[in-house]
Amino acid sequence: MRHRDSDAMWLWWISVVGDLWFGVTWLLNQITKLRPRKCVPSISVLRDHLDQPDGGSDLPLLDVFINTVDPVDEPMLYTMNSILSILATDYPVEKYATYFSDDGGSLVHYEGLQLAAEFAASWVPFCRKHCVEPRAPESYFWAKMRGEYAGSAPKEFLDDHRRMRAAYEEFKARLDGLSAAIEQRSEACNRANGKDKEECANATWMADGSTQWQGTWIKPAKGHRKGHHPAILQVMLDQPSKDPELGMAASSDHPLDFSAVDARLPMLVYIAREKRPGYDHQKKAGAMNVQLRVSALLSNAPFIINFDGDHYVNNSQAFRAAICFMLDPRDGADTAFVQFPQRFDDVDPTDRYCNHNRMFFDATLLGLNGIQGPSFVGTGCMFRRVALYSADPPRWRPDDAKEAKASRYRPNMFGKSTSFINSMPAAANQERSVPSPATVGEAELADAMTCAYEDGTEWGNDVGWVYNIATEDVVTGFRLHRTGWRSTYCAMEPDAFRGTAPINLTERLYQILRWSGGSLEMFFSRFCPLLAGRRLHPMQRVAYINMTTYPVSTFFICMYYLYPVMWLFQGEFYIQRPFQTFALFVVVIIATVELIGMVEIRWAGLTLLDWVRNEQFYIIGTTGVYPMAMLHILLRSLGIKGVSFKLTAKKLTGGARERLAELYDVQWVPLLVPTVVVMAVNVAA
Ligand SMILES: O=c1ccn([C@@H]2O[C@H](COP(=O)(O)OP(=O)(O)O[C@H]3O[C@H](CO)[C@@H](O)[C@H](O)[C@H]3O)[C@@H](O)[C@H]2O)c(=O)[nH]1
Ligand SMILES: [Mn+2]
């Protein structure tokens, strides 16, 4: 384009470079979508292969990780529902163990988990007897649609359902009253035995009334506050016996008849890792690394599935579905993780804040699935344990695998625990080879949960979940892909897992900020996709470049949005009328881009609304949030701590109306300042 004003050269250059950037990123985004792949698990084939005629099963062992921090920001009811859905899922009970990590170290969680384990004793057999779905009671009792009855006792169903619901209401009430009960009890105990000793006058007491809680106290005290308390480990439910044990027949104080169903419960463990001031505890990734070590010592399953505290199992076949891909004879052995999409319950009908993110989950990830596999998105993902230990995938292993291992593993890579290191070879084995809890000493378990354990090791770097980056998920997935592993995307009907989404715009924007800041940070770290070796598929590399550089677009987009300001300075700028050929080009290009968008949503089975929301939030992100993400990187490069992993609050609300009311509860967010400026400028111009 010609121009007459050499003073405005810089504007012209920004526009040319911007157009180039848009063109190139658009192309890079398209080429990663050229070979999308949908995978469907065949659970019936898995059953044919692994279920034995006597009711036993050859399914591999599985460790389930679930994380929570704060019983208020992450309501306990959700967390306990997740626990119940996991305990009731359709996987052989003796083959899986659940590790509940409580980063807050609070007694409320501990006792809440105890209550859940107690309630599970009737909830789980109930689910098995009547084959109910979903197996998280809160969603089950409030589900509008129910499938056909699939259980073994249709006549008893209505009665059992009614009784179970009453029991659940009682469970909920007890859960609700837990905080108050603990407070009352502690006050009473302190009055009785704390008076004489000054330092424990504020103690929080456990249910027996004679033991002080090791973790955080309601009234924080030295060694008993958030960020400073010893490690706690409690096996809440022991490893069950190998053979089915039928439940109790109906009686007066136990009206449900479980005499024909297996009443065993899977193993359940409570973990609160040690916290000490002066240590960076590395949030979720740090918590999961502790779970990884503790589970290695207790059950050491070759597969692991992880959940955020607010995500529950919605389809009880989901664990089996993931196993289908892990054991798949084609490329199962090279699969490091199987990622399920994140689905959410409490989003408003029009998905105002684009929480469902359908374009990402149902289009982008399927594109990746055709290359080396989807990225890890944080929750609802099954891992192969040895991959997390940074082993090579079989296809990249030299002929003599053992030797290769010895050379790859550097001294002190995994820390000092010999029991942990001894557990490693067995983890590669898909058969059970479990040291029973008795063989691992308490001291060793405690050692695995200390803050100092990871000092000077490769944990958080080449071992376990990666940290020191605002988001742990994409980068951990990247490390696995870089080592040559693949991943598989698994969407199923009904949804495998469901969770809760941020309740209001503020939380949602901070979430986007964390993701974009973390991605950009990854690009400038040693996990930059440009630095990966040849094991990373070329197209996968392109995809990771897209995934880590997208916030940069904000610069050009904001410039374009601010250009109309020119109209406000009459006489200062020479504005050329668009000529016809140019206008034609613009129209054709826009039409093509929109058309491709349409084809994409058609193929992925999405609606126009999903697409509109995606575009809309992209604009809100690029104007409001990504500039902050860029700032974050700038601060980090200057050695200042930028965005941190702020917990996303999910509030618990009663009725649907109340819940939606919160959507409009827009708090003033500095993040929206640029967006508002852009809007004002455009309107004025
Ligand atoms: O110190 C901490 C902080 C968080 N968490 C847990 O981490 C999970 C995720 O945190 P949340 O605040 O819910 O983040 P979201 O924005 O909801 O999470 C999305 O984005 C994260 C990456 O930024 C991913 O890890 C998540 O899986 C993904 O759901 C929750 O279960 C927390 O309990 C901890 O265990 N310890
Ligand atoms: Mn979440």
Task: Give a brief description.
One of its GO terms (molecular function) is cellulose synthase (UDP-forming) activity. The chain has 685 residues and is of the alpha/beta class.
SS content category: alpha/beta
**Order of adjacent strands in the largest pleated sheet:** 3-4-2-1-5-8-7-9
Our count of helices gives 21
Please provide the count of β strands.
10
Mean pLDDT: 88
Percent helix range = 40-55%
Compounds present? Answer: uridine-5'-diphosphate-glucose, manganese (II) ion
* Termini Cα gap: 23 Å
Rg value? 27 Å
Shape label? globular
* Main sheet attributes: strand count, strand direction, barrel closure: 8 strands, mixed
Q: Uncertain segments of ≥5 residues (pLDDT<50)?
A: 652-657
Report the sheet-strand fraction: 5-15%
Characterise this structure.
This protein has 21 helices and 10 strands. The chain has 685 residues and is an alpha/beta fold. Among the domains are: 207 residues, no CATH class; 241 residues, no CATH class. It has an 8-stranded mixed sheet with strand order 3-4-2-1-5-8-7-9, sandwiched between helices. Helix 1 packs across helix 16 and helix 15 crosses helix 19. It is globular. About 1% of the residues have low confidence. The protein binds uridine-5'-diphosphate-glucose (UPG) and manganese (II) ion (MN). The site of manganese (II) ion (MN) has 4 residues, from loops. The site of uridine-5'-diphosphate-glucose has 22 residues, from strand 1, helix 7 and helix 15.
